[in-house]
Amino acid sequence: MKPPVKTIVSAAAILGLFSVLGTGLVSLVHENTRTRIAENQRQSLLHSLQNLVPAEDYDNDILADAIEVGDPELGTKPVAVYRARKSGQAVAAVLSPTAPDGYNGEIRLLVAIKADESLAGVRVLAHKETPGLGDPIDENKSPWILGFTGLSLNNPPEIAWKVKRDGGAFDQFTGATITPRAVVNAVRKTLAYFAANKAALFSQQAQSGVDSPVEDE
Ligand SMILES: Cc1cc2nc3c(=O)[nH]c(=O)nc-3n(C[C@H](O)[C@H](O)[C@H](O)COP(=O)(O)O)c2cc1C
Questions:
Q1: Residue 30: predicted pLDDT
Q2: pTM for this structure?
Q3: Which residues form the domain of 114?
């Protein structure tokens, strides 16, 4: 016996209703998750920046006061630059260069430079260096990277911006020279880039949609 048309129509209507509700729910959850991921990423980036430039040293919205620059000395990718200012005066810029020549490829860095061209600090954001050999560049593995704080192109003199094995001032690691050499080079190049472009870096209009160099934790 065939079911009455009325039953078929109401079954179809219920099915339709559930599919609309289901789709709505999925997109709501998706939107919610996307917003949360973006917020986590913002907080993670802010935490990394404030690790290098303390929050009390500036009074602008450092995440919004960002630009993107491109220069072969800073790597092949666009480099996000976050500017810290107090009462409108330049305090520091945090750049995100990439050292192309790690032992296992690229090493992504955050390099914070004060307006006086000295380093507020350097951190490694991502690398593929060998555990136990190249990974002491990670602040969680050794304090090596903290040694850059306070240095500048004149301190040590630019000629000494090399690892000790190459006649410079920076320690290499036991059995691993390639990784620290790549980081020292990248930091030196970033300092030189900053010195040559400081006025432009601070005067350029902030851009929206600058890609965060920090991945969500
Ligand atoms: C499997 C393997 C992994 C290595 N990983 C690294 C590394 O991550 N970073 C590094 O600088 N050297 C690494 N090395 C050592 C380099 O090949 C190279 O010998 C060393 O960096 C040179 O340092 P030295 O001048 O102190 O000998 C690795 C070597 C091997 C065999």
A1: 85
A2: 0.87
A3: 57-203
